[in-house]
């Protein structure tokens, strides 16, 4: 897999990213409200806006990259699509740490790529941010193999 990095989208505050991250981590709205010392209703309202912003961000990124949307999950910040341009599956992720990334299925050699180190760092951060534990052996694989493993844990029915 290869990635293209995009900037964190407009319309998000640090607080929104924190709320989204806590919810993505599985915390119920009442617990998020308690941690942030606000009402559950305030969290509910914020999450509606956040879900809309995440969905729009993923969809606009897909449109700009000419990726056909096949599945979108704003709660997890992930879009599964297909690039007719590159004739491969594409995954767009949204994370609090790295913003938006486009991941294309890639079968070539990662080691020769100038983005090898960056891809490895980002996919390991994605795994950590999403609570996916990797063995030491898995972390030593090339970024494409790590990405396939991580995304099969996030997207139901995705082939490894």
Detailed description of the structure:
This protein has six helices and five strands, in the order βαααββββααα. With 160 residues, the protein is of the alpha+beta class. The protein has one domain. The longest helix is centred in the N-terminal third of the chain and has 25 residues, at 40-64. The two termini are 12 Å apart.
Topology:
Layout (H helix, E strand, L loop, with lengths): L1 E4 L8 H11 L4 H8 L3 H25 L2 E7 L4 E6 L4 E8 L3 E6 L11 H14 L6 H4 L3 H12 L6
Antiparallel strand pairs: 1-5, 2-3, 3-4, 4-5
Helix pairs in contact: 1-3, 2-3, 4-6
Structural shape: globular
- Tell me about the biggest sheet? 5 strands, antiparallel
Helical region count? 6
- List the domain count as a whole number: 1
* Total beta strands: 5
Proportion in β-strands: 15-25%
Distance between the termini: 12 Å
Low-confidence stretches: 2-8
Average pLDDT, all residues: 86
Strand order in space, largest sheet = 1-5-4-3-2
Radius of gyration: 16 Å
Instruction: Spell out the helices and strands N to C.
Output: EHHHEEEEHHH
The helical percent reads 40-55%
Structural class, by secondary structure, is: alpha+beta
Short characterization:
This protein is an alpha+beta fold and 160 residues long. It is built from 6 helices and 5 strands, in the order βαααββββααα. α1 crosses α3 and α2 crosses α3.
